[in-house]
Amino acid sequence: MNTRRLTRQPLVPATIMVVLALMAGADAALAVDWVEIGPAPITSGPYTGRCSAVAASSTNASKYYVAGASGGVWRTLDGGATWTPLTDSLPINAIGAIALDPTDDDIVYAGSGEANFANHSFYGEGLYVSTDGGDTWSILAADAFAGRTFSRIAISHADPLVMFASIMPAGGFPARNAAKGHPQAEDPVGVYRSTDGGTNWTLLAGGLPATAASDVWIDPSDATIVFAAIGDIYGPAENGIYRSLNGGDSWAKLSFGGLPTTNNGRISMAIAPSDPLRIYAMITNPASSTGGGASTKGVYRSDDGGNTWTSRSPGNIQSTYGWYLSTVLVDPVNPNIVFAGGLTLVRSTNGGTSWSTITPPHVDMHGLGYDASHRLLCADDGGLHRSTNNGTSWSTINNNLGVIQLYAGISVHPSNETFVLGGMQDNGTNRRDGPMNWTHVFGGDGGYTALHPSTPNAMFCEYQGSGNLYYSSNGGANFSWRASGISTSDRNCFLPPMVYSPSSQTTLLYATHRIYRSTNTGSSWTPISGDLTGGSPAAIRALVIAPSNAQTAYAATNDGRLLVSTNGGVNWSLKLVDVPGGPRVTREIAVDPMDDARAYLAVSQFGVDQVLRTTDRGDTWLPIDGNLPDIPANTVAVYRSGSLRAVFVGTDNGVFTASGDESDWSLYGPDLPHSPVTDLIVDVNHNRLLASTMGRGVWTTELPTLMAPAIPTASEWGVIALALLILAAGTLAFTRRSRAAA
User: What is the mean pLDDT of the segment spanning 118-144?
Assistant: First the structure.
């Protein structure tokens, strides 16, 4: 069964749906309160999640804005001692660029969509604008920019109504997975210009190609001179640095004086504020279709406004991830002090002749800036760091900055409500020890976790890759490798899923492109299945065992296959193909706790059936998304209370729930920030639902009180009958008019 469709059809006539909703008093959002439980930040470090951009007031040394990669825009008014989230309720909290009006730093522009091209560098929904320092926001230019990402916003110092935006496609390998099939994902990218403060935008041509634009700068001494970096990560011939001498009307590619003009990948630039003729550019080698190869090609310097260039290479500071890690900045008062950020951060004090490594406490650089007191700011995968001496030493300013990105696979303790275990993007696996207190217990990119059912201090965690599985018997104080028998050459979804069997406290399953089983709590593993995918490079992204029957298991692969096993994971039957979704690990399948034949599938894509249900172990599937908004659904969970059940779906824009016929959906609490929900856990022991997010940490709220649907009264049946009569009369009249017209 192919779940793709062109339109979304209601399951019942619209007139009846309206009447029934009025009868039930249905609200747009159920009145439940979500509570943040962190981390904000992780205690060790203290680190928080990836920050993609930073902008500071030029007059107030205590006022900064920082962008969580998918955690929204935050503001500090006390120099980083405390932070306030500003955009939780906007459509999506993926942010790629921030810029302040040079004449009024209460006017803030945030470009939604993170232009770092990772599988978790999500699409945007337009330009967010605030005129009161971030207290309130408007959304501009959704038609121009939704479905794509901002790499930089440049505002003219001569006329702040004139601005430029460099726009790139949403990220992911091999082909824009992070766009999730957004209807505007394939719309034009390149450099855009606005002359009315961001309301209207024009895609610039005049010699400038409509190709991914990775940077744009305005000459600080002459606003008619504009530089654009065309930096598609795959290295097309159009890539290079372009210059306009007439405010963007026409452009010429700079191709002289030592600047490479072919085989260029992503490009980042910076102009020296104190000497605008001094320009630095870092060029990356092209990326391969799988993301490798993007090493540092070099840093290049011009002393004459771009006419000639010389190489000033710091070596390979980007490893093979230059598509993800690329930023350049020049000291505002000394043009010879320049910074280049990749995996590490390097500094030159002699115009690039020599370089030294000055990496902040966390690696992976994404944004650089200065505050009004000439303090260097660095946005990286560990949050925001600051230096008073141009990077010689650093301080961390992440207090209550809650932008952690969690992958699927969090775990909860059966008796200790405080204890939550989760894997985080580039911040390892962390254990919650208090209301907002999380302790780092293991490194790497933290992935799936598992707690022993009866001895929950015994736990598993992992980092990226096959066979990187570790076990602790003392709550995370110490870990040992526990993957004997798992081939490290197996294909994987970056972070392979693993699950405990509900019938044996020593049996687990682990998924690469095939299924492994351990019957001795991970001491040894044996492959028990063949390849569940359609072939290389695919792998298994979701795995679940039915709570009521350990012989029934469901799996999903990142090449769109859904399979079911009825003998504990040894043999599998293919039930669905072409199911869209992301390439990374998910919790997209949930099985009814009391019925192994009844399962639910969430589909993380626009424009398709986003929730499906089977009641016969996958032989047939019914779309049940009903009135659910057309939003990618990343994860699904089922709550049972006796014979009653509720289904929860975590989307890119909140958690929704349905009960009864499971096609009438309500937003489950309006105050969950709009970062993608990556995991949902129904914790019956503590009467709560937990949601982990890719950008705003972990949140919790109470489970609903399930009640059987009331039988309509005589008067209510009368309303239903009236609605049916109205519908029938309208249909009959329409039919007669159609026949008469014929």
Answer: 97
Give pLDDT tens digits for 291-350. Answer: 999 999 999 999 999 999 999 999 999 999 999 999 999 999 999 999 999 999 999 999
**SS3 for 724?**
helix
CATH architecture observed for domain 411-702: 7 Propeller (2.130)
Gyration radius (Cα) of the chain, Å: 27
Task: State the pTM of this model.
Answer: 0.92
Query: What's the CATH code, domain 204-357?
Result: 2.130.10.10
Taking CB atoms within 8 Å and a gap of at least 24, the contacts of 372-379 are 372/56, 372/57, 372/58, 372/59, 372/60, 372/61, 372/63, 373/61, 374/332, 374/333, 375/61, 376/339, 377/54, 377/56, 377/64, 378/54, 378/341, 378/345, 379/51, 379/52, 379/53, 379/54, 379/66, 379/67
Rounded to the nearest angstrom, the gap between the alpha carbon of residue 508 and the centroid of all alpha carbons in its chain is 29
Strand partners, 622: 613
The span from the CA of 699 to the CA of 691, in Å, is 5
* H or E element that contains 143: helix 142-145
Rounded Cα gap, residues 212 and 281, in angstroms: 17
Q: Distance between CA 497 and CA 514 in Å, rounded? A: 11
Distance CA 54, CA 362 (A): 16
Cis peptide before 13 (omega within 30 of 0): no
Instruction: To the nearest 10°, report the CA torsion of 318, 210, 121, 682.
Output: -160
Q: Report the candidate in 490, 333, 412, 377 with the shortest Cα–Cα distance to residue 54.
A: 377
Do 298 and 246 contact (CB within 8 A), yes or no?
A: no
DSSP code per residue over 217-238: EE-TT-TT-EEEEE--TT--TT
